[in-house]
Amino acid sequence: MTAAAVHQPDLADPEGFGEIFDAHFGEIHRYVAQRLGPDDAEDVVAETFLTAFRKRGQYDPSRASARTWLYGIATNLVGKHRRSETRALRALDRLPRDRDVQGLAEGVAVRVSAQSLGPSLAGAISRLSKGDRDVLLLVALAGLSHEEIASALGIPYGTVGSRLNRARKKLRKALGGTNPMEGEHG
Amino acid sequence: MDELKKVRELYGEPSLDPEVRARVAARLDAERAAPARRRGWRRSAPPAGRPRDDRAPGRAGTARTGRAVRAARSWWAPITAGAAIVVMAAVAFVGPRLVTDEGEGVLLAAAGVVETRPATKGAYWHVKRVLNGSDVRHLWVARDGRAWTSQGAGRPVPFTGKGPFTMDGHELTIAQIEALPDEVGPLLAKVHAILGDVSEDEREGVVADAITGLLWSKPAPPDVRAAAYRALAGLSNVRYLGKGTFSYDVRGVRRELVIDRRSGQVLRATTGQATEAVLEAGWTDVKP
């Protein structure tokens, strides 16, 4: 999909920004809520669009689609909420999949560390480096291409592939349960 | 084994509050409306034609109540679950004051935001609201009193019945609403005068309802809305429930309002089982 093929709203115009909000709010909200839990997502998704609005002058439509650009901003902001993300992962680890995870933020005083997550898939995701986790989740949850991730995160194209490979390898290991060190605690 | 598929299954579909969209949109609107006042904004040019106003919203909102420090602290602070704990503690230590310091902060911050917004102009006052989550209603009112309504995507039809603007059943014209006092004391006096004969045990609730009625769907100018927010902060029967939510009883019915301190908007009102959200309210030149 080339930039010329899609309608690009004019960001300098408040109406154009409104179009971007309408088109992408749903999926950006979903992505942030997946990573941080629904309660903490609201402020971060608001901050994502506020940041985009403030920096709209720096946005270059020839380099990335508005969608890619928003995922980049959202991912950057999610990275500042490490504790929320760990808490959300722990909730995913423990709750049945269909359970409503609202109310996670109520335990604000509870300190959660990555180590408290067991040798599960959620635990393995939690223990990935930030860079590896961002690439993994932009592929798995957002469905971005390697090229889009490179421009969203401002990293070289080749780095996207190597981070993704490293992340997948670690997850495979966690899922296979072949690591005796981890098996002892399982 | 496909790890990516497993990752997607792990995260699943989060349960999303559909009202977050409206709340975030309101925050963006506030940002668009007040570009020069926030830190980090000075680099970008304010929209053309907007008068400069260097009063900080929190300070403007409190100059008349003498509680500048308290409101400045609450300005732009995120509403978090932790706030509920603060509110409970405040109730325990402050005593019978139901609105609490935290709730007062929300109201005064909202007053500061609405006050510093420019008044909108146009030929028609237009309100778009959603009843019970899905029923979309429009109302247009011309300055001469003609009014139209529509439901969903239906055609606008002339409005019939009382109003369209009433305060506890008393009809108000646009000119009367625009002429309301923009100071707390005179505004309350005027509201009492409009309400006229109300029994003593109903009066508190009816006054709270009349004041909140000025906050969203009526064409009250920014200064009047700001005064209404400040008046609400001083009413003894308005209770703060945390997370921007206030409640009071009017004639035996509990009404809850959710107020966003950052945009100065009433996001939602719940009366008994019915909920109402105002998505847009302002002057427009677009004909019904």
Automatic annotation (TrEMBL), chain A:
One of its GO terms (molecular function) is DNA binding. Residues 122-171 form the RNA polymerase sigma factor 70 region 4 type domain. It comes from the Bacteria. The keyword Repeat does not apply. GO terms for biological process: DNA-templated transcription initiation. Residues 21-87 form the RNA polymerase sigma-70 region domain. Keywords: DNA-binding, Sigma factor, Transcription, Transcription regulation. It holds the Pfam family Sigma70_r2. InterPro entries: RNA_pol_sigma-70-like (IPR039425), RNA_pol_sigma-70_dom (IPR014284), RNA_pol_sigma70_r2 (IPR007627), RNA_pol_sigma70_r4_t2 (IPR013249), RNA_pol_sigma_r2 (IPR013325), RNA_pol_sigma_r3/r4-like (IPR013324), WH-like_DNA-bd_sf (IPR036388). Belongs to the sigma-70 factor family. ECF subfamily. This is RNA polymerase sigma-70 factor (ECF subfamily). It comes from Nonomuraea dietziae.
From TrEMBL, chain B:
The chain crosses the membrane at residues 75-95. It comes from the Bacteria. Residues 31-67 are annotated as: Disordered. Residues 58-67 have a biased composition (Low complexity). Keywords: Membrane, Transmembrane, Transmembrane helix. This is Uncharacterized protein. It comes from Nonomuraea dietziae.
